[in-house]
Amino acid sequence: MSDIEEFLAENVEKHLIRDLEVMVSDKQDLGFPVLMATIAGMELLGGLDAAGNEFAIHGKGDEYFRRYWNKYLYPAEHQHHSPALASQVFDSVRNGIAHGFYVLEGVEIHTSRDDRHLTTAEDGIFHIDAVSLAEAFVASYRERFRDVAIGSDQHASAIRKRYRSLRTQLGIQPSKRQNASSDAAASGDSQTVGLGAAAFDDSAVEHRPGSSSRFP
Q1: Could you tell me where the DSSP H helices lie in 50-195?
Q2: Is 207 part of a structural domain of the chain?
Q3: C-beta of residue 42 within 8 angstroms of C-beta of residue 137
């Protein structure tokens, strides 16, 4: 398993997505925490996908969020969720929730897959459904981003470089398994680096108490 595959399996799938699954389970009603986790995930993956070889851990969260929104969350076929909405969501909820656990006046948060999600009502209230946004994020990761990130083209190579930049800045050492995979790749040992089916099989991952599989 390559370093980026292991990172996605451990950090994104086992922890971020599992946390979201727990939080959107029946009767939890955790709007702000779901939004915080979803937005953070979009910033992370948008940063890995951005141009250049360096991941900026400060000052580019809005840029990374918008990039993921426009390219993976709601690409061209979702014209009704325009790029302008990305800025509206980020500006109206991200900093307030992260730093003070509030949203700007004129924003209403739902957790019931509300039909008004990402619309502005006649009274001027902008509606965001945290569960709908989280579900769209998880679907976009599974249907689009992951395959791009673990590919073999130049784009995938750039994502891996940015991941290693992030890892270096955070002082995270590659695991022994990652080192073994790198060594095996260099020696041509495909058995060692091949992705096992169990790595992303829900039945092979220990479910946390109270979790439910609510994402498609």
Answers
A1: 61-68, 83-89, 95-100, 130-140, 146-149, 154-169, 176-187, 190-193
A2: no
A3: yes
Q: Is residue 212 part of a domain?
A: no
Number of domains in the chain: 1
The two structure tokens encoding residue 95: 């900093």
The whole domain housing 160 covers: 3-187
Structure token digits, residue 105? 């006046």
Helices 61-68, 31-49: inter-axial angle, 10-degree rounding: 90
Asked if residue 62 belongs to a domain, the reply is yes
CA distances from 35 to 19, 24, 204 (A): 12, 11, 27
Rounded distance, CA 11 to CA 17, Å? 9
* pLDDT, tens digit (0-9, with 9 covering 90-100), for 29-44: 899 999 999 999 999 9
pTM over 0.90: no
Kind and range of the H or E run holding 45:
helix 31-49
Q: Does residue 22 form part of some domain?
A: yes
